[in-house]
Design goal:
The chain is mainly alpha-helical and 88 residues long. The chain contains two helices and no strands.
Length: 88
């Protein structure tokens, strides 16, 4: 009496969506504990660690957001193709 789950009933957890979540959550978690990077050493070209660490995360966050966006687009195309193929 068990039936296959209906995919139209709600969100489906896929590996791609887990990776998207991790990509979007990583910068938040990395910068959440300020006391872990609130120091001046090691300095990078004269810039205290506190500042260059945050600026590095701006670049990392940008890259992770682009990755998440591309994965989301691919996931949506795959779902649309599967939905279109199921209706035929």
């Amino acid at each position: 009496m068990s039936q296959a789950p209906d995919s139209s009933r709600g969100p489906v957890v896929t590996p791609a969506r887990v990776v998207i979540g991790v990509c979007l959550l990583a910068p938040f978690v990395a910068l959440l504990r300020v006391d872990s990077y609130a120091r001046t050493d090691p300095a990078f070209i004269g810039i205290p660690f506190f500042y260059w660490y945050q600026m590095l995360w701006v670049l990392i966050s940008t890259a992770l957001t682009v990755i998440a966006y591309k994965l989301w687009q691919r996931d949506q195309r795959a779902r649309a193709a599967a939905k279109g193929g199921a209706e035929r």
